[in-house]
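Hi, here's the filled form for the chain we discussed.

Project: internal
Contact: R.S.
Residues: 57
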Amino acid sequence: MNYPQYSKFSPITVSVKKNIRQLRLNAGYSMNEGARLLGVSRKQLEDIETVRNFVFI
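And the returned structure, exactly as it came back:
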């Protein structure tokens, strides 16, 4: 059976999260460097960049 997948985040939020990650990677910054430049902890940057999908049955 196929169940629909729902994102925890709105489509625009998912897009922003992906863009932040891609910009950091394209600039060649590590997770630590990116976090320092944004003024957040590494864990906060991981949370910002993370997009999780959940399946509701």
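Let me know if anything looks off before we file it.
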